[in-house]
């Protein structure tokens, strides 16, 4: 805007309003590559023109997708009643997408989607305040100012002011991903002690390893994650399950009693008021915020109503509660690329854990229920063929310092055939998991090579080993992703696995040759080492390379068994 052109001054007597159903605030990437903001109504109307919602952070996109799903579930009275009804929505294409039904729903509840409503502002509490009427910096809800580190953000001076569109996105994000830690107490919150509320845990999805299926358009993405009411064993639906905007007004800062907070269906969970928020604004922009703890949300054994994460058994919780099994969400490891955790993603647990689980009467892990439902559709319906390719997106936060800061954000994806998710695709799954194990073996050997070269030179070994492993996984990642997409129904699994053996061997062998060629003169000269039996051994670059090549051929090209590779200390590392 030209400096000579002045923005219109809001009418001082008018009630400020920012209607999320009609005002543009959701960031979208259109299929033609154009980025823009759209309103809630427009997003549903143009769902087939939209590629995805590229939020300010990947975690914001996850939160916004869940918000849209809650709207869609509620507009459809809890979602499609049956798989056949879901299939009709999918087959009808863009013309059959219920955009008009959603638009009518949003119009009916329009007052609940006003970010600045004087009594019920969207996702906020209108009279939220502290005993001293403090107003805090917007940094408290803007997560792209990492741990107050101004060098890692475009906001050199923090989030001093936000447009209402951006503020709305960060309010949604705060309810989903806000950190724990000590927060200033709000008036009427019974948890306040000496003006503070001590840590109550991260927000509603902070403990999840977020997983959702991504289609070629937003329309496909929403439908792929819309589980019908018929599949109640995967996702509990309840007529009393409501999104936050249709629930009774939250009682100020006080949390709802557990008996009143449920039921925990998708509409409620996807819009859970994990925080109490109040934006402060001047009618043009937001300039401050009050942020307090909201309603606590249980995580334990919630796999029947939270489909967008994997689950793991917790021996610690089982011992504490004296019950079994107890499942907790499986979180993502920022240091481990998604393809390396494939076993946990598509089976819920690594294959070597199956027998011990059977002995104890329950699976040691569960796959995300949204993927399990897609596997069912691939088997039982011709609408989604078994060879239909989807992208599985994985989003999560790693928190540090007692969950009071965000230390890392996970955003990764894998493209795979639905056949890998179906019950009839066990051979394909076994092949994919074995391929990951072969990659782990090859990279483990590459790390040993780097450590051996360092040892021959009399140098420290841990750093070269770690650097070589990082490089090895980086080299194999792209090839594995392409290879995984070729695993479809009818594929010759033996031939596919042999193909991967050759790729893994050749790529890692080439990296090994580069390490040897760049070895120091001291490594080539070598040195004498004592053996465990009291003898001596001459170790140099040549002998280390010979051992590496021999083991790589033996363990990757022609392994004697199909077990997992040994770890750095001789133990088998977990593939998940």
Features:
18 helices; alpha+beta; three-stranded antiparallel β-sheet; 36% helix; 576 residues; single chain
Quick summary of this structure?
The chain has 18 helices and 15 strands.
How is this structure best described in words?
- This protein is an alpha+beta fold and 576 residues long.
- Helix content is 36%, strand content 14%.
- The chain is built from 18 helices and 15 strands.
- A hairpin with a 4-residue loop joins strand 7 and strand 8.
- Helix 14 runs antiparallel to helix 15 and helix 16 runs antiparallel to helix 18.
- The radius of gyration is 27 Å and the shape is globular.
- The chain starts with 25 loop residues before the first strand and ends in a 19-residue tail after the last helix.
- The N terminus and C terminus are likely disordered.
Task: Give me the secondary-structure topology.
Layout: E1 26-30, E2 35-38, H1 40-45, E3 50-52, H2 58-75, H3 83-91, H4 93-96, H5 99-108, H6 164-177, E4 183-184, E5 196-197, E6 210-214, H7 218-224, H8 258-261, H9 266-269, E7 275-281, E8 286-293, E9 310-313, H10 315-321, E10 327-330, H11 342-347, H12 354-360, E11 365-366, H13 369-380, E12 389-400, E13 405-417, H14 426-456, H15 462-484, H16 493-517, H17 521-525, E14 527-530, E15 536-539, H18 541-557
Antiparallel strand pairs: 1-2, 1-3, 4-5, 6-12, 7-8, 9-10, 9-11, 12-13, 14-15
Helix pairs in contact: 2-5, 2-6, 14-15, 14-16, 14-18, 15-16, 16-18
């Amino acid at each position: 805007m030209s400096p000579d052109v002045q923005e219109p001054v809001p009418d001082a007597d008018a009630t400020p309003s920012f209607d999320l159903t009609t005002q543009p605030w959701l960031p979208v990437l259109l299929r033609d590559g154009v980025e823009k903001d759209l309103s809630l109504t427009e997003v549903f109307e143009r769902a087939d023109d939209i590629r995805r919602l590229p939020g300010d952070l990947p975690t914001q996109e996850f939160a916004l997708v869940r918000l849209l799903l809650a709207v869609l579930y509620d507009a459809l009275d809890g979602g499609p009643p049956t798989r056949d009804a879901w299939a009709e929505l999918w087959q009808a294409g863009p013309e059959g997408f219920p955009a008009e039904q959603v638009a009518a729903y949003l119009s009916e509840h329009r007052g609940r989607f006003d970010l600045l409503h004087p009594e019920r502002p969207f996702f906020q509490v209108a009279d939220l305040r502290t005993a001293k009427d403090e107003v805090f910096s917007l940094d408290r809800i803007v997560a792209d100012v990492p741990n107050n580190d101004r060098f890692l953000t475009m906001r050199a001076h923090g989030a001093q002011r936000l447009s209402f569109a951006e503020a709305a996105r960060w309010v949604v994000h705060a309810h989903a991903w806000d950190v724990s830690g000590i927060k200033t107490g709000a008036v009427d919150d019974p948890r306040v002690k000496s003006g503070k509320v001590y840590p109550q845990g991260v927000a509603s999805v902070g403990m999840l390893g977020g997983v959702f299926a991504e289609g070629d358009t937003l329309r496909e993405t929403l439908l792929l994650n819309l589980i019908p009411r018929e599949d109640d064993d995967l996702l509990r639906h309840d007529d009393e399950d409501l999104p936050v905007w249709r629930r009774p007004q939250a009682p100020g800062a006080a949390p709802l009693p557990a008996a009143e907070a449920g039921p925990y269906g998708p509409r409620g969970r996807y819009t859970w008021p994990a925080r109490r928020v109040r934006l402060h604004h001047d009618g043009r922009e937001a300039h401050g915020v009050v942020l307090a703890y909201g309603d606590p949300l249980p995580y334990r054994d919630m796999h029947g109503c939270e489909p967008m994460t994997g689950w793991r058994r917790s021996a610690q919780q089982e011992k504490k509660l004296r019950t079994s099994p107890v499942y907790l969400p499986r979180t993502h490891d920022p240091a481990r690329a998604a393809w390396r955790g494939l076993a946990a993603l598509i089976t819920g647990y690594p294959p070597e854990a199956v027998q011990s689980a059977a002995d104890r009467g329950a699976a040691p892990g569960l796959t995300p229920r949204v993927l399990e439902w897609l596997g069912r559709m691939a088997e039982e319906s011709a609408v989604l063929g078994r060879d239909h390719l989807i992208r599985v997106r994985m989003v999560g936060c790693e928190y540090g310092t007692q969950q009071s800061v965000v230390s890392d954000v996970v955003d990764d994806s894998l493209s795979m055939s639905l056949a890998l998710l179906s019950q009839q695709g066990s051979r394909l799954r076994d092949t994919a998991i074995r391929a990951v194990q072969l990659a782990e073996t090859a990279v483990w050997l590459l790390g040993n090579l780097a450590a051996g070269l360092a040892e021959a030179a009399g140098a420290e070994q841990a750093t070269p080993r770690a650097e070589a492993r990082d490089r090895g996984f980086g080299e194999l990642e792209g090839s594995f992703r392409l290879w995984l997409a070729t695993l479809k129904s009818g594929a010759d699994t033996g031939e596919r696995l042999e193909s991967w053996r050759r790729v893994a061997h050749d790529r890692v062998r080439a990296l090994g040759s580069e390490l040897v060629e760049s070895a120091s003169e001291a490594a080539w000269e070598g040195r004498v080492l004592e053996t465990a039996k009291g003898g001596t051994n001459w170790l140099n670059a040549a002998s280390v390379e010979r051992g590496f090549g021999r083991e790589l051929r033996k363990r990757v090209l022609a392994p004697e068994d199909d077990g997992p590779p040994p770890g750095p200390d001789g133990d088998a590392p977990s593939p998940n």
